[in-house]
Amino acid sequence: MxxxxxxxxxxxxxxxxxxxxxxxxxxxxxxxxxTAWVGTFIGIAGAILAIYFYYSSRKRSIIAFQEMHEKLLxxxxxxxxxxxxxxxxxxxxxRYTAIxxxxxxxxxxxxxxxxxxxxxxxxxxKSLKILDSRIIETTRDFLGIKCIYxxxxxxxxxxxxxxxxxxxxxxxxxxxxxxxxSAELCGSxxxxxxxxxxxxxxPASAAAKKSNRIHLKSGFFISKSFSGWIVxxxxxxxxxxxxxxxxxxxxxxxxxxKPIDYLYTYLGAIYIIIGLRLILRLRRRFPNTLKFHKLxxxx
Length: 299
Known about the structure:
Mean pLDDT: 78
Low-confidence stretches: none
Order of helices and strands: HHEEEEEEEEEEEEEHEEHEEH
Structural class: alpha+beta
Distance between the termini: 80 Å
Shape: elongated
CATH architecture of the domain at 63-201: Sandwich
Strand content: 25-35%
CATH class of the domain at 63-201: Mainly Beta
CATH topology of the domain at 63-201: Immunoglobulin-like
Helix content: 25-40%
């Protein structure tokens, strides 16, 4: 900006006021940036942005699944009771349910399935038998998803598809004569050296509900996801409170005879991360288009 002076070389009153305002603004910005919590906030915000851009730009090939094992009939039944399936006597009846989807960013083609080790659900004991199998739901109708039984292996159901884009997937159900945990999903796909990724039990299964509980000495229990929210909210309270209300959140701890003024800010950040890990680990991971309540359809 060019400043005009009068004949005596002095600034006009208006220009002096503008100079004072600019100096005050610069001093105000400098005072804010020199505050300790601002540097901490900028550093943490920068780390969060770096993590966000990293996750949004990565390209991965991942086929993931969540599963559920159920015993429908058999086991402790009296000998006088006979279980028949399609007119044939069976010792017990169990059901295996799996939601399988592309959890990465790259498209997975059906030609990438390794023919010598196809994607399949197999029983662990050759004395067992698969009774029936079906695909009960897909994210889109034209993915070419199908299950084949009998397959190359008499105790396995092979799975094939034309392609699966990111967040595409399907729901599979199998009836078999084994114990609930007798079925397992396995197979190899080119470009995925670690194989299929198991994201744990489906949230509606009894085992998942039991594993999601923290039992207290009083006999009551709380869910791990609820405890994650408690830790997460507590971390936010410490983090924000110590930044904006340092006197009320003074830690009382010293290092080299100097008070650690923003200890609760760092502890709050740690609690936020721990809480998020608990919440995200226990969340429903499969695509929203695969509604879990549809699994209640019976054979």
